[in-house]
Design brief:
The chain is built from 11 helices and 9 strands. With 320 residues, the protein is an alpha/beta fold. The protein has one domain (38-63, 79-309): TIM Barrel, CATH 3.20.20.370. The strands form 3 sheets. Strands 4-5-7-6 form a 4-stranded mixed β-sheet, with helices on both faces. Helix 3 runs parallel beside helix 10, helix 6 (150-168) packs across helix 7 and helix 9 (239-256) packs parallel to helix 10.
């Protein structure tokens, strides 16, 4: 089995390669709202939509067998107590700091929330909802889903869904598997349980639809290129490099947004992006990005619903 650290090591070169590109600053070619509406491929007239994931996992990690920045040299059967405090930072400091940042910029995000994390920190889960953010499914706990039978997986997803509803009163409509590793049954189960979208896909820079059970289901793609756990937890990037990557990604997608539908996705885990340096980075990036005309940050459920209503949305009929 490939560990998270091995996965990070193998794929870090993909993110690091972006640093070889020269930094460029694109001027905004759009000069009026009418011109924006004429060139936009989004039904609401946006030039580029930014989709932010805020993972609320702290408190939902297992007692043993979890990944952390500490060396994996602890004897089996023992809890890595210092590593647990690294996770605790996510709910003691990280989420609150990020919520204040989103408020500062007047944006709404999607919080992929582990059921047991919400149960252990109900006040924080409800604060996410109170501030207008989407709380979405992220499993009951860290148990891998791809090895489960159909019924086991259905029970697992529903248990996490029910736990979040018990804590917040919200019925989740979006889903994110642990490390994106779904089974061949996951999407069918999500459709059966009333979910409207999932994010466990890296194949496009725009949302799209797939036919499931006789009706369309939305896919709001994720990204490893602008993912804090992929780059920073693996210690391959510094915060300043992460900022540069976000800006490079934004500049290119904004340029492409003049002629086709483009969405930028980036990920902020509670215990990583909730740190002072990373919140500073995201503050700088959002200040930079949101000054461009036609740029909007949207919750993933709103992106999914807009895509489901969009008659021009891409439909993938050969989806695995």
């Amino acid at each position: 089995m490939i560990t998270r650290k091995e996965f990070l090591k193998d794929t870090a070169i993909l993110g690091a390669s972006s640093l070889l590109l020269p930094r460029t600053a694109f001027s905004n070619p759009i000069t009026s709202n009418n011109q924006l509406m004429e060139t936009s491929k989004w039904s609401d007239g946006s030039r580029l939509v930014i989709s932010i994931s805020m993972q609320f996992e702290a408190g939902g990690e297992p007692q043993i067998g979890f990944d952390s920045p500490f060396p994996a040299n602890l004897e089996k059967g023992y809890t890595d107590l210092p590593a647990k405090t690294w996770f605790h930072y996510g709910y003691k400091e990280g989420i609150g700091r990020m919520l204040d940042l989103w408020d500062k910029h007047g944006i709404k995000v999607t919080s992929h929330t582990i059921g047991t994390a919400a149960k252990r920190n109900p006040g924080l889960a409800n604060e996410i909802v109170k501030r207008g953010h989407e709380i979405s499914g992220h499993g009951l706990d860290w148990t891998p889903q791809y090895t489960m039978s159909y019924q086991e997986e259905l029970n697992f997803i529903k248990a996490g869904m029910d736990m979040i509803k018990q804590v917040t009163g919200i019925t989740t409509v979006g889903y994110n598997c642990n490390w994106l590793r779904r089974s061949k049954n996951t999407i069918k189960i999500l459709q059966e349980l009333g979910f409207v979208y999932h994010i466990d896909d890296l194949s496009r820079d725009e949302p799209f639809l797939i036919p499931v059970g006789g009706k369309n289901f939305a896919v709001v793609p994720y990204s490893l290129r602008c993912n804090d756990i992929q780059l920073l937890e693996g210690r391959y990037f510094s915060s300043t490099q992460f900022l540069e990557t976000l800006k490079l990604e934004f500049d290119q997608l904004y340029k492409e947004g003049a002629v086709k539908k483009r969405m930028m996705s980036f990920s902020a885990h509670d215990r990583i992006s909730g740190t002072p340096a990373q919140v500073n980075v995201m503050d700088q990036f959002l200040t930079y990005a949101l000054q461009h005309e036609g740029v909007k940050c949207m919750r993933k459920d709103d992106i999914a619903r807009m895509t489901l209503k969009d008659k021009s949305a891409l439909i993938d009929t050969d989806y695995n």
